[in-house]
Amino acid sequence: MNPPRATTTLRAYRLLSRALAPLLLGWLWWRGRREPGYRERLAERLGHLPIEPSRFGGLWLHAASVGEVQAARPLIEALLRDWPEHAITVTTQTPTGAAALRATWGDRLAHRYAPIDTPGAVRRFLDRLQPQALVLVERELWPQWLFACAERALPVLLVNARLSESSARSYRRWPGLMAHAWPRLGVAAADAASAERLRDLGVAAEHTAVTGNLKFDVAPPEQAEPLSPALQARHLVVAGSTHEGDEAAWLDAWPGLREHHPQALLVLVPRHPQRFDAVAAELQRRGLPFARRSLGDAVSDRTAVLLIDAMGELMHWYRHASVCFVGGTIAPVGGHNPLEPMALGQAFLFGPHTANAQALFDDAQAAGAGLAVHDAATLAPAVHGALREPAAWAARGAVARGLVDTNRGATERTLAVVRARLGEVDPSTLVPVLTDTHGSDTLWHDPRTVRTERASGLFESDATTEHLATGSGRGQARLVHLDGHGLVLRHYRRGGLMARLSEDRFWREPAHLSRAMREFALLRLMRSWRLPVPAPALARHRPHGLVYSADIAVGLIEGSRNLVQRLQEAPPSPDDWASLGHAIRALHDRQVFHADLNAHNLLLDMQGRAWVVDFDKCAVRPGEAWKADNLARLQRSLRKEAARLQPFHWDESQWASLIAGYGPTPSAGGTTDSTP
């Protein structure tokens, strides 16, 4: 697929997002007066993450807030079976989402705040995290995020995808905003209707699967905290995840319900913690006797309402409820998660606003697990009926549990889609990278190969070394044996005209963007893809005022010779040429652009396996046309060496064997051509 092109609509969106960025940051600071979490790590919102190379090449999973974190729980646990903890980074937009993540996984998973959707913030974020894929949960489609990922050929997958008809209409109203995103997006949809809407917007049918709702697989807490004797004597009516409109309906209906059911206790669980005090003030204004959970207020016979002004307790109260209500449905929010009560075998009431999970609410209502109300007038008789006939209401609860059990399995189906989207990956190769500073030097190294105490002096080592031939012919590679490992050390040097001005100095830039660290990170990523490249061992960035120098050490490919050396000795076999073509194709299939693909940078080992080396200034990039240019560059290098060296066992007919191993070749226009 060709590189993305920004439409006029997207350019206008970028201008608007940049203009609004200071206002957004100011709003976060203002909101932090009541919720200090919004003031935490504001720099991350601008993409300024800590540099942790161990996380490079891992997964970026974004779950906006509490609901998305809860939905992602079973998928994250499944991913952790394959991926090391340090290779998964989870972002949220809200502090409550961050708190939900910590409550489940503690410090096992890294949390970062997601960048605002401006080009600069997103670029910095991706430069500092360098993931190999982005997994979005439910509806988090940010235009610039997706454009920046497309520029870097990063696969993006939307899991548990839900899209309402009103949201689809909004996207259709501004088609240029996401034109770059739809053809590249992979979708694991929660329901068939959402999948169809996304296909209509432009997501490829072959990239769309209906995997079911991940929330069906969220296991409820196993241990139930017992209720106090005072609460055991009451019939708990739990209104969960409520907003102002929900609470207004309940508080209008509750005095009348209390007259018929004096043992009933309304348990209000507001969705957002910043509203706890406002809800308490409203209860005070209405003159309803209430207790606050956070203050430890005792519940007496007079108490009409228990206000749960604490986070993370909703499932506890749903478990002990006589009647449950799912909030955000009388208030025009779109509805929160009905699977929370259903997973506990509880039927539930809900209002008319259910667009966030329309199919789920519809299925629950059709099965009898959910009962729709519209306002305070219809809410009161529904609650009255449930409390008056508890056996009938419990039967609805059994239906709810059966519906959940029938629909389990979305996690494994989603995981299969994720694996297919990522391609062949071996996450076990993404071992932690140790970072060190020695004077002004920054060092990254693989501790399996280079011990910390040896890292700082390796490039100045007095150990016996052997100079190796390299692609540039400048003799900058040395072979060193260290603790049983053969390492190839290379000092970065300039070529061409610039070498006359400065042999080995480059304009200063952050260490993680320097040539050595970029090559180290790319090699580590490619090794996770099982590509035929050497293993990175050590990288060094050394600043010198306004410039820097760099070095890298990679694992030796035992028993290998580069293609020029082989051609000077004897003609490679057709199988050797095919192996070389296959190795290049493996890189191209992963969109790896080699900036200097020449005969010196291709190796053949004693088993006839081909390897590719020297990835300075290389990168993963989108598009197809450059692949033909890559092959043409290699062919020119063979012709150049044939004119320069004697003997040199090369003739043009051998190129056909390499192309046979490569397969159909891309043309300059980005299509494929099977003609050599």
From TrEMBL:
Active site: E68 (proton acceptor), D596
The protein's Enzyme Commission number: 2.7.1.166
Cell inner membrane recorded as keyword: yes
Keywords: ATP-binding, Cell inner membrane, Cell membrane, Kinase, Lipopolysaccharide biosynthesis, Membrane, Nucleotide-binding, Transferase
The UniProt record lists the keyword Membrane: yes
Site for Transition state stabilizer, residues: E138, K215
Any single Pfam family the record assigns to this protein: Glycos_transf_N
Gene Ontology cellular-component annotations: plasma membrane
Residue stretches making up the 3-deoxy-D-manno-octulosonic-acid transferase N-terminal domain: 40-218
GO biological process: lipid A biosynthetic process; lipopolysaccharide core region biosynthetic process
UniProt pathway: Bacterial outer membrane biogenesis; LPS core biosynthesis
Compartments in which it is found: Cell inner membrane
Reaction it catalyzes: lipid IVA (E. coli) + CMP-3-deoxy-beta-D-manno-octulosonate = alpha-Kdo-(2->6)-lipid IVA (E. coli) + CMP + H(+); an alpha-Kdo-(2->6)-lipid IVA + ATP = a 4-O-phospho-alpha-Kdo-(2->6)-lipid IVA + ADP + H(+)
Domain of life where this protein originates: Bacteria
GO function terms (MF aspect): ATP binding; Kdo transferase activity; kinase activity; phosphotransferase activity, alcohol group as acceptor
Membrane topology: Peripheral membrane protein
Function comment: Catalyzes the ATP-dependent phosphorylation of the 3-deoxy-D-manno-octulosonic acid (Kdo) residue in Kdo-lipid IV(A) at the 4-OH position.
NCBIfam families the record matches: PRK01723.1 (NF002475)
Family to which the UniProt record says this protein belongs: Belongs to the protein kinase superfamily. KdkA/RfaP family.
The name this protein goes by in its record: 3-deoxy-D-manno-octulosonic acid kinase
Organism: Hydrogenophaga intermedia
Gene name of the encoded protein: kdkA
